[in-house]
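Handoff note, outgoing to incoming analyst
You'll be picking up this chain. Sequence as last confirmed:
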Amino acid sequence: QVQLVEAGGGLVRTGDSLRLSCVASTQSGSALPISWFRQGPGKEREFVAAINWNDVVQYYEEAVRDRFTISRDNSKNTVYLQMNHLKPEDTAVYYCAAAAYYGSSRSYLDRADRYDYWGQGTQVTVSS
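Most recent structure output, in case you need it:
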């Protein structure tokens, strides 16, 4: 069992930056791919970014590709999402999730129903 705890959300202005963190409760979390999803008001949960266990492979949703960076520090059991040039449409609850999956397929990792462990979410609000 892996517990995930997100932090780093907040209220910012258009163009600002935030760094979200996702800490796994056990070292085993460092062996799993971890992704960020978000759910905006009245919207479905959507994929944002994924990283495989050893930081070799990263995937991004097209709308964030040039602004967000996912990374991980396995010595700290932590995955980060650096978000730059934030826009009002980035407003959402951001969730990290871990999958009991030992591959690196984008078609697997961008589906929320593939994930076994979820954090509680952290709110990001971007004002215009």
